[in-house]
């Protein structure tokens, strides 16, 4: 029986001022999803076997995406999916997005549907509601496209890669803490209205950040990776962030931000950065916070990898 195996890499969304717009795929972690047709099950059923995540279809990001896709494409065959979770759940590293993007890519391949990457985003983002309560496209777009992406349209979803004009490396500082409903909570903390000044400040940051990535000018990235709306509204969730960021910039990091909804802190660096000093001071700050944590180095990664087997 034919099997489709899909690998999807971890992602970091927002990158400072790019809330629900920018996301970056990296090889810090990689989820693996295997899908096969299951003729012994009732038509149109979805069976999920997974570690560390819900296996009820409606509560699983992969399952929720598939329900919508099966309904729209009239798929009546049954499938079994096995999810090997390696991306930490609830860490702000796109764990739910990896699962939903992988499931959509697997069905597209298994049933030869010919769904474009942007259409895959449309289905995969629906699965994000299983963990956050709302459908958002940035993480799944990075999982599908790989590297750095910008979500340029929501209805219909449309994303495009942004070239990174310098040799970028990444350090993820990942606190080992779990908050039930963290992503939904983090989104609820964002103000519904902002001042014109804050809007202009964030627009300047976002334009500088994108220009810095495309040109490879690290000073533009440093200036641009500052947010005046989302990160400031969520600071109570990760009080260690500002000290880590300030130290990273003192040691010539390319930039630092909260990864997605946190609590992971993402530090961008290159050959000009004193990464050893950043690691040493970050350990001191995290130890003082009383939280267990780990540090993972990575680089930007490709998009989803698909393998067929019997």
- The CATH topology of the largest domain is Ribosomal Protein S5, domain 2
Helix content: 25-40%
CATH architecture of the largest domain: 2-Layer Sandwich
What is the oligomer described by this structure? Answer: single chain
CATH class of the largest domain: Alpha Beta
Total number of domains: 2
Rounded Rg: 19 Å
Class inferred from helices and paired strands: alpha+beta
Order of helices and strands: EEEHEHHHHEEEHHHHHEEHEE
Give the overall pLDDT as a whole number: 91
Detail the poorly predicted runs: none
Question: How many beta-strand segments?
Answer: 11
Largest sheet: 7 strands, mixed
Overall 3D form: globular
End-to-end Cα distance, whole Å, is 5 Å
Tally of contiguous helical segments: 11
Strand content: 25-35%
Structural features, described:
With 310 residues, the protein is an alpha+beta fold. The chain has two domains: 3-162 and 300-309, Ribosomal Protein S5, domain 2 (2-Layer Sandwich); 169-298, GHMP kinase, C-terminal domain (Alpha-Beta Plaits, 2-Layer Sandwich). 37% of the residues lie in helices and 26% in strands. The strands form two sheets. Strands 1, 2, 3, 4, 5, 6 and 11 form a seven-stranded mixed sheet that branches. Helix 3 (117-127) packs across helix 5 and helix 10 runs antiparallel to helix 11. The radius of gyration is 19 Å and the shape is globular.
């Amino acid at each position: 029986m034919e099997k489709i195996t899909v690998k999807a890499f971890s992602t970091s969304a927002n990158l400072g001022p790019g809330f629900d717009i920018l996301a970056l795929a990296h090889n810090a972690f990689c989820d693996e999803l295997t899908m096969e047709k299951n003729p012994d099950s009732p038509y149109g059923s979805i069976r999920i076997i997974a570690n560390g995540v819900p296996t009820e279809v409606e509560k699983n990001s992969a399952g929720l995406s598939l329900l919508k896709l099966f309904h729209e494409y009239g798929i009546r065959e049954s499938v079994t999916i096995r999810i090997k979770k390696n991306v930490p759940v609830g860490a702000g590293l796109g764990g739910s997005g990896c699962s939903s993007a992988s499931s959509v890519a697997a069905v597209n391949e298994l049933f030869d549907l010919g769904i474009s990457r942007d259409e895959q985003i449309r289905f995969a983002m629906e699965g994000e509601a299983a963990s956050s309560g709302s459908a958002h496209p940035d993480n799944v777009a990075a999982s599908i496209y790989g590297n750095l992406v910008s979500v340029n349209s929501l209805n219909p979803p449309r994303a495009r890669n942004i070239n990174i004009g310098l040799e970028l490396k990444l350090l993820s500082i990942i606190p080992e803490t779990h908050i039930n409903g963290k992503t939904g909570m983090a989104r609820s903390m964002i103000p519904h209205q902002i001042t014109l000044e804050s809007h202009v400040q964030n627009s300047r940051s976002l334009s500088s950040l994108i220009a810095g990535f495309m040109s490879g000018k690290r000073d533009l990235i440093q200036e641009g990776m500052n947010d005046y709306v989302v990160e400031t509204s969520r600071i109570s969730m990760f009080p260690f962030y500002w000290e880590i960021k300030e130290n990273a910039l003192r040691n010539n990091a390319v930039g630092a931000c909260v990864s997605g909804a946190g609590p992971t802190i993402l530090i961008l660096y290159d050959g000009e950065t004193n990464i050893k000093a950043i690691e040493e001071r970050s350990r001191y700050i995290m130890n003082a916070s009383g939280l267990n944590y780990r540090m993972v180095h990575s680089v930007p990664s490709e998009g989803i990898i698909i393998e067929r087997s019997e």
